[in-house]
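Final report, Chapter 2: Outcomes

The project's central promise was a pipeline that accepts a single protein chain and returns its three-dimensional structure in a standardized token representation, suitable for archiving and comparison. That pipeline is now operational. To close this chapter, we reproduce one record exactly as it appears in the project archive, with the input sequence first and the structure output second.
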Amino acid sequence: MPETSPIRPTNDEARALARELIDTARFGAIGVQDPETNTPMVSRIAVGTTPEGTPLSLISDLSHHTKALRTDPRCSLLVGEPGAKGDPLTHPRLTLQCTAGFVTREDGAFVTLREHYLSTHPKAKLYIDFGDFNFVTLTPNIAHLNGGFGKAFTLTREDIGL
């Protein structure tokens, strides 16, 4: 029997759902390559966006995933959480394969990102000014959307508005 691809042609509904998952995410799971063991590692991180809509996080230099991203900026970000009811696998989620870029306090963009981030993450005010915290932008290279059973899509940066 010929194999058929489970990936559907990208459409506007998939583009809108992917964008919604990015824009509403407040946390996600980041996958990095552990530089000490050379194996994959996943951590939960806070997630927001730049004013232009690129995913970003405020992360500490003390965290292991920060060290991994400084060694190898290739990473993966999963956003989208199951709802209160139903099978978790029926709820939409988006995996972004990204390249991380650091924005330190010495960078002129830090102040703009700080204000924007605090507008969506007000509790971060408790630690955003600690010296070990910087922003990391997670620029998507490609995205994989699972909109629920039978709703799989591969999206480009352009498809998600970046």
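Archive annotation: The mean pLDDT is 94.
This record, like all others produced under the grant, will remain available to the consortium after the project formally closes.
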